[in-house]
Design goal:
It is a single chain. The chain is mainly beta. It is built from no helices and 13 strands. It is rod-shaped. The N and C termini lie far apart (about 80 Å). Helix content is about 0%, strand content about 30%. It has three domains: about 50 residues, no CATH class; about 30 residues, no CATH class; about 70 residues, no CATH class.
Length: about 160
């Protein structure tokens, strides 16, 4: 280009493509990036694109960083693996709740389990007051459980227990 009879080579605007995967910087040099958004790929909860000294790269969240997408009650937790990926790992503190007072909700080897509580454990569901051997809350298991001294109906409507 000539300006007033003098040849010149003005720099292209910053961000102009100057080759496969390359962009111009403000000084007219062709680089991999001016900012992280010039770099290929997408940012996730576990990795972010970076642009340092005109070169694209990735920054990873530390291993064990929890992600926002979690499914409660599945005995697992989603977290970063330290290399940019999201992984699911077992979590003993994430059991499903079956709503039955006559079971203990827990996780065993990454699976939810609902173990029966001890016979006679106090409960307050479906009109019952104690847990029976079938994990149901009933009025009584024995005559001693009833104020009347007579245990007639030990089986009230039960809750479904999911193992």
């Amino acid at each position: 280009m000539c300006t007033a009879g003098v040849p010149s080579n003005p720099a292209l605007p910053q961000g102009t493509s100057c080759g496969v995967g390359l962009v111009c910087n403000s000084m007219g040099a062709c680089l991999g990036c001016n900012m992280a958004t010039d770099c290929p790929g997408m940012d996730t909860e576990c990795q972010s694109r970076t642009c340092t000294g005109g070169a694209c790269g990735l920054a990873f969240q530390p291993a064990g960083t929890l992600t926002t997408m979690q499914l409660g009650g599945d005995c697992h937790v989603n977290q970063c693996n330290g290399a940019g990926a999201i992984v699911s790992v077992t979590d003993a503190n994430d059991p499903s709740t079956d709503g039955n007072q006559c079971t203990m909700d827990a996780c065993v080897n990454g699976a939810p389990v609902h173990t029966p509580v001890a016979l006679g454990t106090t409960c307050a569901q479906n009109g019952g007051v104690v847990c029976n051997a079938g994990s149901s809350c009933v009025q009584c298991n024995a005559a001693a459980d009833c104020s009347s001294g007579s245990c007639v109906n030990t089986q009230l409507p039960t809750l479904t227990v999911t193992p």
